[in-house]
Structures are given as structure tokens and as C-alpha cells.
Amino acid sequence: MFQFTLEPTQIKNVHFIGIGGVSMSGIAELLHDKGFTVTGSDIRDNKYVRHLESVGIPVIIGQKAENITHQELFVYTDAILPTNPELQAAIATRKPCVTRGQFLGALMQNFPASIAVSGSHGKSTTTSMISDILIRTEESPTILLGGTLDEIGGNVLSGDGPFFLAEACEYKGNIRYYYPQIAIVLNVDEDHLDYYKDMDDIVSAFEGYMENIRPNGVAIINADDPHSATLPAHVHGRAVTFGIASSDADYQVTDISFDEVGHPAFTLHFPDGTTERYQLGIIGRFNIYNAVASIIACDITHIDRKIIKQGIEEYRPLHRRMEYVGDFCGARVLTDYGHHPVEIRSTLRALAEHKTNKLWCVFQPYTISRTKTLMDDFATAFCDADESVITAIQVAREIDTGEVTGEHLVQRICAHGDKAVFQETFSDVCHYLKDRVEKEDIILTTGCGNVDELAEMLVHY
User: Fold this and answer.
1) Any idea which architecture 13-98 has in CATH?
2) In sequence order, what DSSP letters do the residues of 12-53 get, joined into one string?
3) Cα separation of 424 and 402, whole Å?
4) For 12-50, what is each residue's pLDDT tens digit?
5) I need a labelling partner for 349 at 20 to 30 A (CA). Which of 87, 202, 336, 445 fits?
6) What are residue 16's DSSP bridge partners?
7) What is the distance between the alpha carbons of residues 114 and 166, in angstroms, rounded to a whole number?
8) In what helix (H) or strand (E) does residue 287 lie, and over which residues does it extend?
9) What is the pLDDT of residues 209-254, one digit of tens each?
10) Could you tell me the sign of the dihedral formed by the alpha carbons of 148, 149, 150, 153, in that order?
């Protein structure tokens, strides 16, 4: 197991290959705050790169062997291919060279009260909800987010207390590297099938993760999620469950209601027999699960329940989580990070329940392999939108062979009986929507690529 200490003793210089990702940039900034000399590279400039440079971290645009010089530790993103010349040069130095997941797992070991949030959906929202609670305490937490939270001024908060909070993504089996004190499992769904063989393989990875929980640790598991049913038996520490439909869950949700906008309220029954009523400031039934998991994580660490309630009820979403960007031709423009069919379906359902006019969804598919593998699920994910606009697939780390395209997805959506069109570029989308949207319409742009830039284009069109 790779080990790392936050005291810059033997290792002082750390280099990040692919530093411009939201998680990589956050880890890099954290090390910089802790006194390490940090450098990095990426293939393109972006807002995270510019922020790192503004705090004094040099970033090279372009990945080449010459970027490897005197550094003593190398951390690389999972998106880097084995043939990358910079990665090959780093490996050739025979100095420690680890993935982001391996490094995050080692970083976690430096904190006695580490909280890792995992699941196919809801990780970033739940992590930011817990963040909003922790920063109201005097614990000085360290936080790494998968998005930007205004309350901490970005995606990282470097504290000196016992709490360490981060997302625990299962991509490429990264969760096997994590040994948190508290592990939250929101759900287990079919995703990352460019790495995992099938659903059973994904469940097996989560079962192995549960075996990492420290003997005095706690796993917080969604009892309503069918694919999480086997997880409690694999926990070496204590397993705590929560649910809406599951009557035998340790933390039980009842009396759910919604206001006219779609903000849910619910009553939570605690194991000690007490109850508490919560009113959320974000929409969607699925966010009840995220909120309850956050409440439990903070409750079992003995944070005052008044502080927990205040944090949960005053929480507002991360950027790119149903974020209101502005107006376009009288329509409200929202942007979201959802890129899995389950996420898209849940978000559209929540918006459709309270719309006053037409609901548009603009989706940018991400990677050929995900689009191909989940095509059947994508075909039925847009049924709550009045019309969907599909852009070209963001190929990312793969080679575009033309085997699967955004046009193919449109054909499948239409075959399901829903309305969809293909518009290849963001400019095409703007032009298409300009003469079609009406006042009080809702336009949701969604995807994990750069589709948030389209939302900005619409607002400033």
C-alpha cells in the first residue's frame, strides 16, 4: 500500500500529470497549502488551471517528457493513457508514481475522522452538504469537492482539524484504495463499464470497499438501493442503514411533502427514538437521500443537531447541480453535471413536476464507450423533457471511430416516442433554440463535459 504523510519531510516536490481536473486540482492546492512544492501539467487551459496559477502553482500546458525534472513524487489522473510521454518519463525515474485514487487513499490516512462519500449518483451534492455543516463547527475541516462550493470559495478547503471529507469514486476500482473512518454509500448503479465487466463486478468492488472500513469505523448504506443489499455483511466495522421505503432501516424517513417549487420536506426518525423535521432548499426527491446520508454522517460524529439542521436547510447546490445560470429569450437556463441515465431521468422528473411551460434538455454525451454501453437506458431517460437536443459526443480519452454518435442516440430516443433532435455544436444549439423557446420555458444543459459553457453561451447570446 502506498503511504504518504502531510509533513513535507522526505518528499517535498510533487508533480501532477493532468492537474486541471476538479479533483486533481483540489489535491494539488491542498498540498500547496501544506507547504509542498507543487507543479503540474495538462493538455489544455481551464478555470482550474488558471486558479492554480493564481495561488502560485506553475502549470505547463502540454504533456511531454521534459516536464519531468527534479520532482520526487508523481500523481496522475486516470484519464492519462499508458503511452503518455510525460507519464512514461515519470515512471522511468523509479520515484513514486501513483494514480489520483491511490494518492487520495493515502492522504485520507492522515486524518482520524475521514469521511468518504461514494455511490453512482449524488456524491458531489452529499459531500457539499456535509461541507456546509462542518464549516459551521469549530473543527477546521479539510474538504475536497467534485465541484465548486461558494461557501468554501472553490473546490478545496485546507484545515488543521481531524475531519477529512472527500468523494470516493469507484472508477477504475479506486475505492479499493480508500480506508475511511466513515464510508457513505448512496447507491450502486451500472456505470464505468469501460472498466467493470458488468453489474456484478461493480457490486463486488463495493463489497471489497466495505471490507476496508476500519474496525471502529462506520458504513452508512442506503437500504432502499437494491444493489447495496449485500454491503452491510461485508463491513468490518458498524453498518448503519437509512431509507424511505425500507421500514427496517436504522434511520427512517416519513411524511415527505413538497412546496410549490418542488423543495421537499421530510421527517427523520433517529435510532434513539427522536425525530426531526427538515425543509430542503433544493428540489428533487432524490436529494432527500443525499440529505439524510449527510445528517447521519454528522450525527454519528456528535455534531450538534441544531448545527446539522441549520446546515441542511440553508444548503444551496454546487455549481453545475441544477444551477441557475440566467435567462435566454425569456427561458430559465439551468446547468447540471448529470451524465448517467438515472441522474438525467431523476433531474428531469424533478423539473417536470413543477414546470409552468416547456422543458428542454440539452445533453452532451460523454465518451463513446459509455454512450454505447448505456444506449438503451439513455433512450428512455428523456421522457420527462418536452424536447431534447443532443450534441456531438465528447470523446475525451477515447478514439472516435464513428461507431456511435449523438445522431444514433437521437434515433433511439425518437424510437421510444420522445422528441429529440441532433445539433452537433454549441453554436448549432444556440441557433436552434433561439426561434423556438418561449417565456417561462426551462432549458437544462447536462453532462460531465464542458456543456456548462453552452449554458453561459445561451445566457450571453
Assistant:
1) 3-Layer(aba) Sandwich (3.40)
2) -EEEEETTTSHHHHHHHHHHHHTT-EEEEEESS--HHHHHHH
3) 14
4) 999 999 999 889 999 999 999 999 999 999 998 998 999
5) 202
6) 40, 75
7) 8
8) helix 286-299
9) 999 998 899 999 999 999 999 999 999 899 999 999 999 999 999 9
10) negative
Q: At 212, which helix (H) or strand (E)?
A: none
Residues pairing with 268 in the sheet: 253, 276
- The CA-based angle 439-335-265, given to 5 degrees, is 90
Nine-digit cell string for 258: 413538497
Length of the chain: 461
* Distance of alpha carbon 108 from alpha carbon 111, whole angstroms: 6
DSSP result, 185-208: E----S--TTTSSSHHHHHHHHHH
Tell me, rounded to whole angstroms, the distance of Cα 159 from its chain centroid.
22
Q: DSSP for 400-460?
A: --SSS-HHHHHHHHHHTT--EEE--SHHHHHHHHHTT--TT-EEEEE-SSSTHHHHHHHHT
| CA 152 – CA 169 distance, rounded (Å) | 21
pLDDT in tens, 192-203: 667 788 889 999
The CATH architecture that domain 109-314 belongs to is 3-Layer(aba) Sandwich (3.40)
Give phi and psi for 145, each to the nearest 5.
Answer: -110, 155
Write the single-letter amino acid at 17.
I
Helices (H), 34-117: 47-54, 85-92, 100-108
List the grid coordinates of 267: 421527517
Lay out the sheet containing 59-61: strands in order across.
Answer: 59-61, 37-42, 13-17, 73-76, 97-99
C-alpha cell at 128: 457539499
DSSP 224: T
The upper half-sphere exposure of residue 164, i.e. CA atoms within 13 Å in the direction of its Cβ, equals 20
| Fold topology of 323-459 | Protein-Tyrosine Phosphatase; Chain A (3.90.190)
Helix (H) or strand (E) holding 84: none
- Sign, Cα dihedral of 96, 98, 102, 105: positive
Give CA–CA dist 326/421, Å, rounded: 23
